[in-house]
Amino acid sequence: MGKAMNDSFDPLEAQLTHADDRVNLSHWLPPQWGVTPRVRIGGRWFNLLWLIPLGLAFLITGIPAAQELRGLPAVARFIARYPGQATVPIEYSGFPAWLRWQHVFNLFLMFFIIRAGLQILADHPRLYWNRDCTPGTEWFRFQHEVPGDRIWTAKDDAVTLPGWLGIPGVRHSIGLARWWHFSCDLLWTLNGLIFYVMLFTTHQWQRIVPRTWTVFPNALSTAIQYLSLRFPAEESWVRYNGLQLLAYFVTVFIAAPAAIATGLMQAPAISNKLGWLGRTLHRQAARSLHFLILCWFIFFIFMHVTMVFVTGLAPNLNHMFAGVNGGGPEGLIIFALAMIVLAIAWALATPLTLNHARAVQKTGEFMIGWLKGFAEWWDPSSQYSESDISPHFWPNGTMPASDEFNALAARGFAGYKLRVDGLVENPCEFSLDDLKTMPRQEQITCHFCIQGWSGVAKWGGVPMRHIIELVKPLAAARYAVFYSFAEGADGGRYYDVHKLENMRHQLTILAYAMNGHPVSVLHGAPLRLRCENELGFKQVKWITAIEFVADFTRLGAGQGGYNEDHEFYGYRMPI
Ligand SMILES: Nc1nc2c(c(=O)[nH]1)N[C@H]1C(S)=C(S)[C@@H](COP(=O)(O)O)O[C@H]1N2
Ligand SMILES: [Mo]
């Protein structure tokens, strides 16, 4: 006899809270500014503001040096032999409409991708080359050093960005920034795929794919000519010079695909499925490379725009925005209109995101959430060895503070009971000793926090498959709800919802041991979830009860978990 649905409601459901549909700054993490970005070289940190005087010094010494160089007979002969353009026949000229439109779309998407990407970076404002995120080992940061005298969570570390720069600028708004980033990524990838197809089905690819080795001496020659401020002949309508060719080739065919690959490789479901590759090009290497590719894009955009301006603004804009070859004003007019639209969209992005955060979350789910969900199909199989265990494992989240929890902790969780109920044939309560006598599974796996840090640890506990066998979920049960002893950052009980399929993965366990010791209170004692194809926020710590349900929309604000409700995350987050 199945129980009536209403009878099976868990009493803890009443302690889940509603959430605002907008970012209410008085209920949000208070602002905290970081420091100017700096890079560690050896043991010393260099402020990146130094790049400004260094760049100026380069121009001040480089320009006369290049002019001097051109006076040398050998260099003059070199430039005469390699004037800039590679001499291979070309079968087209001009810029067709599809290319011009794709250029504008690309430009638009790129700015929002970059803004949202910086916002994501600001949630863990450090970059590492090693897999572990041990404080002090990062090579880049725009946050102070991690204080050594207190517990410092990843959330403590997140910094604010100006609202005109990040989307939406507010500290720890990564949930919203990710919807922007991934939705624009999808459109950008589609635009790029169409661009590839069009390039190669027309003859336009010849513009940006080098076809002779002389592209290198031609590029060098062009660079010397530009730096000497005596520019080479402009032939952009027909073909690009060596420097343009290489810059466009690298951007379109190397940087863009590498950005997509290094983005995806930061995801638990993907990294944990790639075996050796995922362990070698691990999350932190991928994240660092992703950032360096961003640096390339910013450098490219800066140089590209500068060159468009200094090598003949009107004809250049006519080429790319109006599709005509000449000195008239039409290109400039279309360009100005595009910039006005961009400026309006730029100004609206942050206020819209803050005021309609739930709509941004819903739009993101609609655009890309379902696609990301496909990554759950893979069994996350990657495991590490003992020597990979991270010396430092960032803590995160809001610690439990209730009397109930403190009393249990004081007795070493002797009185602890895990309640498992809801849509199950056999509701159960398990003490910690009960759980410890069940089959024990150990696994050394990597944890992927949404904020950007990762860490490897050895977890020991009961496979969820075993719990499922004992409680026997009814056919109607589709999700498992994990209730925590702790509250979330904004009050109300922390909880999270997982699909039943995820609970049956080989590596899904209720862990009571970490690195050979009982899990500490900091990391989730007495019991925390490990579900290795999802991001960290879904690994509920301090579990008090598990409820099997058919639907989660009546829980909390209905989004499938505390951070889903309050921070606008997606409830399926394998990427
Ligand atoms: N109850 C509860 N569980 C939680 C959180 C929380 O705030 N409350 N934070 C989550 C997040 S964002 C992460 S990254 C991991 C961090 O686990 P750790 O502290 O062991 O590193 O716990 C997750 N589980
Ligand atoms: Mo996290």
Number of domains: 2
Global structural class: alpha+beta
The CA-CA distance between the termini, in Å, is 40 Å
Distinct ligand kinds: the ligand Nc1nc2c(c(=O)[nH]1)N[C@H]1C(S)=C(S)[C@@H](COP(=O)(O)O)O[C@H]1N2, molybdenum atom
Pick out the low-confidence regions. Answer: 1-7
Mind telling me the C-alpha Rg?
28 Å
Mean pLDDT equals 95
**Strand proportion:** 5-15%
The count of β-strands is: 14
If helices are DSSP runs of H or I spanning 4 or more residues, what is the number of helices? 19
Helix content: 40-55%
User: Tell me, what's the shape?
Assistant: elongated
Task: Order the strands across the largest sheet as they lie in space.
Answer: 6-5-14-9-10
Largest β-sheet summary: 5 strands, mixed
Describe it for me?
By secondary structure, the protein is α+β, with helices and mostly antiparallel strands. The chain has two domains: 11-22 and 379-566, Sulfite Oxidase, Chain A, domain 2 (Alpha-Beta Complex), CATH 3.90.420; 38-375, no CATH class. Helices cover 43% and strands 13% of the residues. The protein is built from 19 helices and 14 strands. The protein has helices at 51-71, 73-81, 97-121, 154-157, 174-201, 205-208, 215-227, 242-264, 268-271, 276-280, 283-310, 313-322, 330-355, 357-373, 403-410, 432-437, 464-471, 500-503, 562-566, and strands spanning 38-41, 44-47, 126-127, 140-141, 417-422, 428-431, 441-448, 454-463, 479-487, 493-499, 509-514, 517-518, 528-530, 543-549. The strands form three sheets. A five-stranded mixed beta sheet has the order 6-5-14-9-10. A hairpin with a 2-residue loop joins strand 11 (509-514) and strand 12 (517-518). Helix 5 crosses helix 14. The chain starts with 37 loop residues before the first strand and ends in a 9-residue tail after the last helix. The model is unreliable at 1-7 (pLDDT under 50). Residues 393-398, 449, 484, 486, 494, 523-524, 536-537, 539-542 line the site of the ligand Nc1nc2c(c(=O)[nH]1)N[C@H]1C(S)=C(S)[C@@H](COP(=O)(O)O)O[C@H]1N2.
